[in-house]
Amino acid sequence: MLLKYLLLWFPMVIIAIINGSIRQFLYIKFLNELAAHQLSVLSGILFFAIYIWIITGFWKIESSAQAITVGLMWLGMTIIFEFVFGHYVMGNSWEKLFADYNIFKGRLWVVVLIWTAISPFIFFKLRS
Fold this sequence. Notes:
Blueprint: H1 2-30, H2 33-58, H3 64-89, H4 94-99, H5 109-127
Helix pairs in contact: 1-2, 1-3, 2-5, 3-5
């Protein structure tokens, strides 16, 4: 069952890329970079919520422990992907990548990570 949820994480990368594209081609036309980032965090959470709600309807999570495991697995995969892809493929500096974790400067990326970790548990409880 966990292998299934591991594979179901990969479409979340596509969702994140689409969300980032919306930020770059739409939000940034009307907002400054920080506000566009913050709106993108909100829309990303919404897009992930829709996707996760749908997949947990088709492939039921069987227990709270499994939901927590799935969430932590997705969190780890997301962080690893962000740093590996962000640095080695996109060429972003480590400093730039870590800057998105600075909530004191309005960077809200960590909220997406928290949502990624807790949403399987939340949706498991809602469906129970």
